[in-house]
């Protein structure tokens, strides 16, 4: 039981840390990427785009569909 509590506590700490990081970096990223600017990180280029909810749902459905086919007997 102690191992379960330790794992749960670690998960909560990780979630809180990632949430705090996202809340701190979000305004900074929005400011840096405003006006169509792009940040070049070598293999990765960051730019701000607006994605509609429908596109996100279609991408999510495609990902779920492709993973479900991999696990069929």
Notable features of this structure?
73 residues, mainly alpha, 67% helix
Account of the 3D structure:
This protein is mainly alpha-helical. It has one domain (2-70). It is 67% helix and 8% strand. The chain has helices spanning 2-32, 53-70, and strands at 38-40, 45-47. Strands 1-2 form a two-stranded antiparallel ribbon. A hairpin with a 4-residue loop joins strand 1 and strand 2 (45-47). The model has no long low-confidence stretch (mean pLDDT 79).
Short summary:
This protein has 2 helices and 2 strands. The protein is mainly alpha-helical and 73 residues long.
Fold blueprint:
Blueprint: H1 2-32, E1 38-40, E2 45-47, H2 53-70
Antiparallel strand pairs: 1-2
Q: Determine the N-to-C terminus distance.
A: 35 Å
The overall average pLDDT, rounded, is 79
Strand order of the largest sheet: 1-2
- What fraction of the residues are assigned to beta strands by DSSP? 5-15%
Judging from the principal axes of the Cα atoms, what is the shape?
Answer: flat
Number of discrete domains:
1
Task: Give the biggest beta sheet.
Answer: 2 strands, antiparallel
What's the tally of helices?
2
Helix content: 55-70%
């Amino acid at each position: 039981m102690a191992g379960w509590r330790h794992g749960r506590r670690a998960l909560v700490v990780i979630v809180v840390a990632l949430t705090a990081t996202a809340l701190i970096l979000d305004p900074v990223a929005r400011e840096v990427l405003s006006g169509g600017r792009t940040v070049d990180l070598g293999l990765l280029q960051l730019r701000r785009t607006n994605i509609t909810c429908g596109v996100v749902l279609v991408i999510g459905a495609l990902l779920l569909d492709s993973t479900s086919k991999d696990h069929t007997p």
